[in-house]
Each structure stands twice: as structure tokens, then as C-alpha cells.
Design the sequence.
DNA sequence: TTTAATTTTGTAATCAGTACAAATTTCTAT
DNA sequence: ATAGAAATTTGTACTGATTACAAAATTAAA
């Protein structure tokens, strides 16, 4: 329960109630929520929470590398508290985002990263797929 | 010169003057321009051009698969008329976007695509890198 | 050559994200 | 403890990219 507090501190993040709440939400909801979703969910139990705080916190979390901000959806940012290397798939029909484990613990991404990148200092890699998820494929229409 | 017209027609796009102008611009400017940049550049020689037309046209181009809309920059969409499979690198300092050729003509991406994607119908793949470009690395401060 | 279909245009609206300064909370040093 | 400094949170106002929409213009078809 209080593990999150220690986790944040270990990452150099002061564990304010808001930050703990946001981090907990992200850890419990791995469905790549939007900022809006985070705010809406926490707003009820924490009525004073401001949307600006959510944005500030997420920017801090990204800097401290405890959260990824995904740009796979052109509408709005999606959050992901899983930092192990993995790719993402978004269904163009239902909009859901799925994690895609990259074989060999990201070695593939490493390989990719090597090609032609001479002189480029790569700090982040994002792999995005778009298409139709299994559930939507078996839908009539 | 008039090749573009035929190219568009071959892709099922009616070659209006606006569409030809936009396509030509994208083919001549492979530096992943923004929508704004396209509009600004063409607006002078084609004063009646509307920004809405640029947006409409680009959406059409994407549907017809003659242009990619890149979401690598969180601020605004970037355009790319190169449809051969390749990745992109954005410098976090200067903001420039570079093409990264994926070795073996996209076979690497194909490999990635295979893993764990059972049941998922992949239609697009985007690989985004972020970091510091060679030029910005050799900059003081 | 009138009618229908397509495309373009301009304006207004939307909506995610940011700037900013006041208010609050937390930390530190007495 | 407690005053003052530092960090954090909050609310409001703003920005700026993108979209909605309906009228105007262009093109195709009969």
C-alpha cells in the first residue's frame, strides 16, 4: 500500500498526496488512460484536485521516468506506468490500446536502434501499431 | 512536372489544383513539415487556399495512402510523403525530424510485427525515436 | 446547359494542453 | 514550536491546433 510512497521517493519524487493518488491510479489502471480519465477518476475522492496538478504531475513523472506519455492517439496523450520496453497497438475501430511485448526484452528495439543512427543519441523509442483488434474483427458490420 | 497529376489519379485522387500544389510541396520538402508550414508556403502563390482545404486534403491523402501523418511531435502533426517503410528520429533540442532507414527494407519492422500479435490485424507501424541529433550534440551548452 | 456531385472556402466552435499568479502546504533554521 | 523560505497545488484565463458546418465555387454528367 505504502509502497508507492517509497517508490516515488526512490525516483526523486516528493510523495505528495496528489502524486501518490495519481501514481496509484496509473498502477491500478494499465489500460493507458487519458489525462481526463485520471482526473475524473480521482476528482470524486479528492475533490480539490486540479487538472493542472494532474498535468504538472505527469510531466514530472515523465521527467523522472516513472511514466511514459504515449502519442499513439492523435487526439490526446495516453499514460503508461509500465517502463519495461514494449510496443503499443491501437485499434482503429474501438480505440483501445494494447501492450505488445517485444520479444527478447527489447533486444529487437535495440537492433533497430543501431541501424544508421550513427551520431544520434537515442533516449526514447516508441513503437506504435494501428489496425483492428481481435474483438472488433469478429464484430458484425 | 505533370507526373504528380498522374500519380494522384493512379491513387484514386482527383487532381484539383490545390491537391496538386500540396502534393508537390510535400514531395519537394521532405523535412516533415507541419500543416501550418504547408499552408504558409502555398498561401502566397495560391492566395485563395484555405487552411481547411489543407486539412481535408491531407486527410484524404492519408486515406489514399500517399502521405503519412506523423505523431512524433506532441505539438502538431508532421507530414511525410515517403511511403517506403522507415522510422523517424526527433531531436529533443532543435525539434528537427530525421528519417531513419530501417535495415533490410522494413524486414525488421515485419519481424517486430509478428511477435505476440496473434489475432491483431496490423495496418500501420510507426517507429519513433527521440534524443539529440549530431549537430546539437556538438553545440556548446 | 441545366442539374447533380464534388471540392473549396471562411467562420465559428471545440477542446487538449499551458501560463500564471494566488493560495496552500511542507520544509528548515532558529 | 515558529517564522520565513521553498515547493506544491489550485483556479482561471489563455493559446493554438484541429474540426464542424454551410455557403460558394468548380467540375462532371445527362
Sequence:
Amino acid at each position: 500500500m505504502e509502497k508507492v510512497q517509497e517508490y516515488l521517493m526512490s525516483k526523486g519524487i516528493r510523495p505528495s498526496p496528489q502524486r501518490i493518488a495519481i501514481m496509484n491510479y496509473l498502477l491500478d489502471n494499465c489500460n493507458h488512460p487519458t489525462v481526463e480519465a485520471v482526473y475524473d477518476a480521482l476528482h470524486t475522492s479528492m475533490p480539490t484536485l486540479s487538472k493542472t496538478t494532474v498535468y504538472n504531475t505527469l510531466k514530472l513523472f515523465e521527467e523522472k521516468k516513472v511514466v511514459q506519455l504515449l502519442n499513439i492517439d492523435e487526439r490526446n496523450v495516453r499514460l503508461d506506468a509500465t517502463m519495461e520496453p514494449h510496443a503499443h497497438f491501437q485499434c482503429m475501430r474501438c480505440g483501445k490500446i494494447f501492450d505488445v511485448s517485444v520479444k527478447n526484452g527489447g533486444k529487437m528495439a535495440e537492433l533497430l536502434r543501431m541501424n544508421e543512427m550513427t551520431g544520434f543519441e537515442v533516449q526514447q523509442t516508441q513503437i506504435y501499431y494501428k489496425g483492428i483488434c481481435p474483438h472488433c474483427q469478429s464484430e458484425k458490420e
In short: Residues 84-133 of chain B form a domain with the Dna Ligase; domain 1 fold (CATH 3.30.1490.190). The two ends of chain B are 45 Å apart (CA to CA). The mean pLDDT of chain B is 90.
